[in-house]
Amino acid sequence: MEAVKKHFFSDMGVMLGRSMRHITRSMDTIITVTIMPIAFMLLFVYVFGGAIKTGTDNYVNYLLPGILLIAIATGISYTAYRLFMDMQGGIFERFHSMPIAPSAALWGHVLTSLVSNTISVAIIILVALIMGFRSSAGVLSWLAVAGILALFTLALTWIAAIAGLSAKSVDGASAFSYPLIFLPFISSAFVPTESMPGPVRAFAENQPVTSIVDAIRALLSGQPVENDIRVALAWCLGILIVAYLFAIRVYKRKAA
């Protein structure tokens, strides 16, 4: 068993290196992923921010958690695209003919998504600091934020894996991300849910993004997270487990 695990992790490391080389050779991917969220942040802070009532003095502090989730939702579309291209290019078939762990190539894409999205999130936080973002959070709170964002990234990445493995075209592989990018707009990411009409408010308060945004916002502001962090973790872990099981099932069917 120990030899099998060692074999799997060494293979996964090779596949991670392969996928990361694709990223480092085309840094425009990360730049493209960060441009739209940063543009949204600039637009809402400097154009709409004065007209939006959130009960906070610094709107960028209120806005940042939602922007980070939009960046992640944008970034995982590239995972679906790269998986689709590997499927079309027959790369997985070649890997299966080699003495490597069967799911190592898939995990390589997933971990690459985690690394590349971490870079994008870091860039956006730096821009937010320039725009006036300030946090009273301690080290443990920042680690909790990092953990939530990592779980959210992994959950969406496994959804991306399903799309990339199942799509019939390049457009189909990345189109699934559009609803995910739009979801933060119908949440507490930009405005308090109390300002929304009844049906919209009901949806916003009972979808995963609102609890995740509220938990991150409370952690960054040094406020008690109360029930939000439990709900956020439940959503992230639930989506992660279900998406992982479906992705592995699709992967095994395609590889058969």
From TrEMBL:
Domain of life: Bacteria
Pfam families: ABC2_membrane
UniProt-annotated location(s): Cell membrane; Membrane
Topology of this chain in the membrane: Multi-pass membrane protein
Membrane-spanning residues: 30-50, 62-84, 105-133, 139-163, 229-251
Keywords for this protein: Cell membrane, Membrane, Transmembrane, Transmembrane helix, Transport
Domain ABC transmembrane type-2: 28-254
Keyword Transport recorded: yes
Homology family: Belongs to the ABC-2 integral membrane protein family.
Protein's name according to its UniProt entry: Transport permease protein
Biological source species: Clostridium aromativorans
Higher taxonomy: Bacteria, Bacillati, Bacillota, Clostridia, Eubacteriales
